[in-house]
Write a structure and sequence with these properties.
Elements (H helix, E strand, L loop, with lengths): L2 H12 L22 H10 L3 E6 L7 E4 L1 H7 L3 H4 L15 H11 L4 E8 L5 E12 L5 E10 L1 H7 L6 H10 L3 E6 L5 E4 L2 H6 L3 H4 L4 H5 L2 H17 L3 E8 L5 E11 L10 E8 L1 H23 L3 E5 L5 E4 L1 H7 L3 H4 L13 H12 L3 H7 L3 E6 L5 E13 L2 E10 L1 H58 L8 H32 L6 E4 L1 H18 L3 E5 L7 E4 H17 L6 E8 L5 E8 L33 H11 L3 E7 L3 E9 L8
Parallel strand pairs: 17-19
Antiparallel strand pairs: 1-2, 1-5, 3-4, 4-5, 6-7, 6-10, 8-9, 9-10, 11-12, 11-15, 13-14, 14-15, 16-18, 19-20, 20-22, 21-22
Helix pairs in contact: 1-7, 17-18, 18-21, 19-20, 20-21
């Protein structure tokens, strides 16, 4: 059969095919495709070809997107088509055989193409050529139906006009962006192919007509299936549609959609039968589908691995998606809950108010959006009816013209339990702290009382010992008695000093220290302390050096407390420094703002590193408590630190064992900063 006759026999089929957006003038590399719905919509918006997208996840396959070319073709805007079922353009004329077959295919997720009589918004009819493909997720579930539409009214009418010359038909075929072909049965050798075939794969028409050319260019992974489907359709004499990949001259892989039709003229033998059809390059459409599928797969992975429950709700407050965490939190399986009302997850007594709030949020009520758009602590309801605390945050979005709300929910049961436990523990700690404070107050009161009770008889003992030692009422009769009296006096004085330290410490801990805060001269305070400790210094055979600038500002403190601090520090330095050693006392402006540092440093035996952190607490000594060479009670530094803190100052201890010890007392600088 000649090419023109082949064209005449298939031309009416061409009116039911899609002059696809993927067609191009020559083989080309595939460009990067968009990955999100908004990006895909942006691509479709720029196409001259009419595009519509429907949602497989709803029963009546409602439209969720149409582009501007669709509006130009039909007169219907995107808002007017939102939610309309597929096939609404046919009006009441839905008993067309082509539509019944087409609908069955798309319901099964199969690619389909057909032409129907449809009606524009102005009620004018037109022949609508539709090509549709399903988009699935990684698990094979149907997501979207993408349809490309074309007005084939004139094409269909002209294809059946008997007055058309073969030349006019050939010109139209030459300009068509599809491959029209004719091949023999059963070897499938092409005897005719339209000119567009050259631009698709890059091979000349003469090469297409070589034996087994078509089968040889089919992708090896698809070849056996494609050849079998092609041959079976040809042998059975039925119209058949299938997809496969072909390899271009440049080595690029292209996706093809293939429609076959068979005619047997004048009772010819089976060997003379011809198979005819149309081949369309759908590579870019396939890439779009893959991007859709990949995007859905990524979204599914994120949702399924999210630690929080994530669900989406449509405009009728019915659940459309439900991730694995949501199944765990609420106890419903995805299959059970999808399609059900969101109120199943809300306590019964709150459902009416929740419905009103949710609908207002859907309508983008700003006052409600501010409330429900932030994290809120609510009560959720599990499948078994139990209630539990849950944090919820909502987000509003649109897919096409469809309004959706995404809810992120976080089960707060464990957090609530831990908060209650922490609250109970806090209360217990508060009770224990109060008991400890009361015990400390009782201890302080006991020490103060006992110290007063001990001081009275102790003063009497010291006084009588001094009388005996001085033999005021006559000789004792033996020199040894006089020595014993001296020992009694010295021991009593030592015990009295300990009791006085305990009294000082108890007053500090009780906050009952009477302070007279006034400007004091650091030099005068240091000199007074050195004079008071001089006998001890001479006995220990130590030297004392001082370094205090004449213009050093006055310190702000209590004179008695400053004197006691310096006496304690100097006496400690004298106790722990070997004969011939030196005690250095200095004063200077502190690095701390508005303060003066008074530093007492010795080159004695130092303090062990493991003791240093605890030094300055009551009864903590610089050495072993059982070391006879380590005199004292360990109260001096504790009292000094307490007095410094009472005057809003600090006491810091630094030491290297066997080398030196440095104690820094930092006190506030007197107001006005003048030297005293």
């Amino acid at each position: 059969m000649s090419g023109s006759k082949a064209v005449r026999s298939v031309f009416h089929r061409m009116a039911r095919w899609f002059d696809g957006p993927a067609a191009a003038a020559a083989p080309r590399p595939v460009r990067a495709m968009p990955t999100t719905f908004d990006e895909l919509r942006a691509v479709f918006d720029k196409l001259d070809q009419s595009v519509a997208i429907a949602d497989y996840r709803q029963a009546d396959l409602p439209l969720i997107y149409v582009n501007a070319a669709f509006t130009q073709l039909t007169g219907y805007t995107a808002d007017e088509t939102a939610g309309c079922p597929c096939g609404f353009l046919m009006g009441d004329d839905r008993d067309q055989p082509e539509w019944i077959d087409f609908k069955q295919k798309i319901r099964n997720g199969q690619p389909a193409s057909a032409a129907f009589r449809c009606y524009r918004k102005d009620s004018k009819s037109f022949l609508n050529s539709v090509q549709a493909s399903a988009v699935r997720d990684a698990d094979g579930n149907l997501l979207y139906l993408i349809a490309f539409l074309q007005d084939a009214t004139q094409l269909g009418a002209r294809a059946t006009r008997p007055d058309w010359s073969e030349d006019r038909v050939s010109k139209i075929v030459a300009g068509a962006n599809v491959i029209l072909y004719e091949a023999t049965i059963p070897d499938l050798n092409f005897t005719f192919v339209s000119p567009f075939a050259e631009s698709v794969l890059g091979f000349q028409l003469s090469e297409w007509l070589k034996p087994a050319f078509w089968a040889g260019r089919v992708h090896p992974d698809d070849r056996d299936r494609a050849v079998e489907e092609h041959r079976r359709a040809a042998m059975d004499g039925v119209e058949h549609e299938f997809e496969y990949r072909m390899i271009s001259r440049s080595g690029a892989t292209l996706w093809m959609r293939h429609l076959t039709t068979v005619e047997n003229h004048n009772g010819a033998q089976e060997s003379a039968r011809q198979v005819r059809g149309v081949i369309v390059d759908v590579t870019e459409q396939k890439i779009l589908e893959d991007r859709f599928r990949q995007r859905e797969h990524w979204k599914s992975m994120v949702l399924e691995n999210a630690p929080d429950a994530i669900l989406t709700v449509g405009s009728e407050l019915r659940i459309q998606s439900f991730n694995a965490a949501a199944e765990k939190v609420f106890g419903w399986s995805r299959d059970e809950i999808v399609g059900q009302s969101i109120n199943l997850l809300v306590p019964e007594e709150h459902r009416n108010s929740h419905t009103a709030m949710a609908m207002a949020f859907m309508d983008k009520d700003k006052s409600v959006a501010r409330t429900m758009g932030d994290w809120r602590l609510l009560q959720g309801r599990r499948r078994d009816g139990s209630l539990f605390p849950i944090m919820v945050r909502l987000g509003h979005s649109n897919i096409g013209s469809q309004s959706l709300v995404t809810a992120i929910a976080r089960d707060m049961t464990d957090v609530d339990r831990r908060n209650r436990e922490l609250s109970d523990l806090s209360q217990q700690l508060a009770i224990q702290l109060e008991l400890a404070e009361n015990a400390n107050k009782a201890k302080t009161q006991f020490l103060s009382t006992m110290s007063h009770e001990l001081r009275t008889p102790l003063n009497a003992i010291i006084g009588f010992a001094e009388l005996l030692e001085s033999e005021s009422f006559g000789p004792l009769g033996s020199e040894r008695y006089q020595n014993y009296a001296g020992d009694i006096r010295a021991s009593g004085q030592h015990l009295l000093s300990i009791i006085n330290e305990i009294l000082d410490l108890s007053r500090i801990e009780a906050g009952r220290v009477d302070l007279t805060i006034e400007p004091l001269s650091a030099a005068e305070a240091v000199n007074n302390a050195i004079d008071a400790i001089a006998p001890m210094i001479r006995k220990a055979e130590l030297s004392v050096t001082t370094s205090i600038p004449a213009d050093l500002p006055a310190i702000q403190g209590d004179q008695r407390s400053v004197h006691q601090i310096l006496l304690n520090l100097l006496s400690n330095a004298a106790k722990f420094t070997q004969a011939g050693g030196n005690i250095a006392i200095s004063a200077k402006l502190s690095q701390a703002a508005g303060a003066i540092d008074i530093v007492v440093e010795d080159d004695g035996r130092g303090i062990p590193a493991h003791i240093l952190p605890a030094l300055g607490t009551p009864f903590q000594k610089a050495g072993s408590a059982h070391d006879a060479s380590n005199p004292g009670t360990g109260l001096g530094l504790a009292i000094s630190r307490g007095l410094a803190e009472q005057m809003k100052g600090t006491l810091k201890i630094d030491s290297v064992e066997g080398e030196w010890t440095r104690i820094t007392v930092t006190l506030p600088r007197a107001a006005g900063g003048a030297a005293a």
